[in-house]
Design goal:
Length: 222
């Protein structure tokens, strides 16, 4: 997947060298601007929505947190008793996630810097991918979900940027700038088209809109 590899490398550069401090602060309890507060609130809502698709009791379950960022989802999963593999393309974000994880959950969470689609990560009961696929084209997402579904026993819950007028305008304007001069841009998606590219069933779970945060939650079952 050459397009996927190029985007993945761009995402790694952005989060590991350009935006690490921004994301560390956004995902903390520190005071942020009003705009970033809406993003923080939206991400909290989306995390709760995604977790609602999984059992409250995850003892004995293996869960992949694909694109774990600073580790909030991994910590929530550990409180439910899950054995969590938390992977992110950014080693710096992984370092933050390790530091933030309560020591009581250290034995339940295995942090790893690398590609969330790597088959070497193993098999899982559930996969959660919160906002970690939003920069990729639909065919890349379809291939990622297909690969993960072959190693997932129950469901994959993930998010995409929906095709709203605002995001479509934002995406179109962003394409006017040289790629080297901008951060990775969200690619808006139509869930019905993604359903044709993902094997199995794809269900719309819900959408969260909070200021500048807009994200659609989808659930895939083989």
């Amino acid at each position: 997947m050459p397009d996927y590899a190029l985007t993945r490398d761009r995402v790694e550069t952005y989060f590991d060298r350009t935006a690490t401090q921004t994301w560390e602060r956004l995902t903390s309890s520190e005071k942020v601007s009003r705009i970033r507060e809406t993003v923080r609130h939206g991400r909290d809502q989306m995390r709760a929505l995604m977790l609602s698709r999984l059992p409250d009791d995850l003892n004995g379950a293996r869960v992949l947190d694909a694109g774990c960022g600073t580790g909030a989802m991994a910590a929530e999963l550990a409180t439910r008793g899950a054995s969590v593999t938390a992977v992110d393309i950014s080693p710096q974000l992984i370092d933050i996630a390790r530091r933030r994880l309560p020591p009581a959950f250290a034995s339940l969470v295995d942090f790893s810097a690398g590609d969330m689609s790597d088959p070497a990560l193993g098999r899982f009961d559930f996969v959660l991918a919160m906002d970690s696929l939003i920069y990729y084209r639909d065919r890349d997402i379809g291939q990622i979900i297909e690969g993960l579904s072959q190693r997932t026993g129950q469901s994959i819950v993930f998010t995409v940027a929906p095709r709203t007028p605002f995001l479509m305008a934002f995406w179109t304007v962003g394409k006017l700038f040289p790629r080297s001069d901008r951060s990775p841009t969200m690619v808006p998606h139509d869930p019905s088209r993604l359903a044709r590219l993902c094997p199995g069933s794809l269900t719309k779970v819900g959408r969260v809109s909070s200021g500048f945060y807009i994200s659609e939650c989808l659930e895939h079952r083989a």
